[in-house]
Each structure stands twice: as structure tokens, then as C-alpha cells.
Design brief:
Length: 156
């Protein structure tokens, strides 16, 4: 039998005190009433009774250049934080972390927005590096090098 718990509050004032069964969440309907709906998969148990079975988003693989924190698990409504290591940023952004949320129900659960990998940030293309004007900045994965500029050799 499903246990009863205070439902996941989806930011709707009317749902604040509504009690739903396990694996259900409170939703405010367009007519202003509330309803507990299964946010998981409805299946038959061994006794042939219908029950909600917990559904989770797929695991997010840890990237070698970052860490994945799942403080709330992977169930619907859970938030996951992807934190990039120093010298790395979230792909196609200039930030070093991303928060994604498990959304959907049953067969449609997914992370939103889609998790992106951590990629090397090119310190040499910005003012992040601290190379003096007589040194040349060389980007390396997760960091940079300052190399002395050799003016005695010509390159061509």
C-alpha cells in the first residue's frame, strides 16, 4: 500500500497543504481545484493491483573535468548540479556550473535543460591569464602557461 506524505509543492499556493500518496504530486487545475496525479509509472503489482512505481531520470555520468552533485536524488522534481573544475566551463557558456531538473512522468522523464559537459576555458583569449607583456600565453587543458617570447629567432 502506498504511504501518504505531503506532496511535492510545485510553487502553487493551493497545493501547499494538500496530501498526496507516494509517487504523486499536487497540481493546480485550470478551474482552480487541485488534484494529486501520479508522476511516475502506473503498473500492476504482484497482486494485480495498480500502483505508482517510482521513476527517475537517467544518471548523469561524471565528466573527468567536473563533478555531479545529486543532493535530492534523481526523482521527478529533483535538482542536480554539474560543477566544472577550475579552468573549465559548461559547454557553450561562460559559467562553471549548471543546474538541471528531472521533469516529466513515466516514459517521458528527462533532464531539463539537457546536461552539458565541462570544456576547457581558453584563458589566453580573455583577461583571465596573468602573463606579463613580455610573455606569450599558451592555453593548456584547465590552465595556461606563460612562456618567454624569444625575439632572437624569426618564425616564418
Amino acid at each position: 500500500m502506498c504511504s501518504v506524505f505531503v506532496c511535492v509543492w510545485l510553487g502553487v499556493e493551493k497545493c501547499k497543504d494538500v496530501r498526496c500518496n507516494a509517487n504523486e504530486a499536487c497540481f493546480e487545475l485550470s478551474n482552480g481545484r487541485t488534484e494529486c496525479r501520479c508522476v511516475t509509472e502506473l503498473v500492476r503489482n504482484n497482486d494485480g493491483e495498480l500502483e505508482c512505481r517510482g521513476v527517475t531520470c537517467p544518471p548523469i555520468e561524471a565528466h573527468p573535468d567536473g563533478h555531479v552533485y545529486t543532493p535530492g536524488g534523481r526523482g521527478v522534481g529533483a535538482h542536480v548540479i554539474i560543477q566544472c573544475n577550475i579552468g573549465y566551463v559548461v559547454h557553450r557558456t561562460a559559467v562553471d556550473s549548471q543546474t538541471v531538473t528531472c521533469r516529466g512522468a513515466a516514459a517521458t522523464v528527462h533532464w531539463s535543460p539537457a546536461p552539458l559537459p565541462c570544456v576547457d576555458f581558453d584563458d589566453c583569449r580573455t583577461d583571465r591569464h596573468v602573463c606579463s607583456s613580455d610573455k606569450h600565453c599558451i592555453n593548456i587543458p584547465g590552465s595556461f602557461l606563460c612562456l618567454a617570447t624569444d625575439t632572437s629567432q624569426s618564425h616564418g
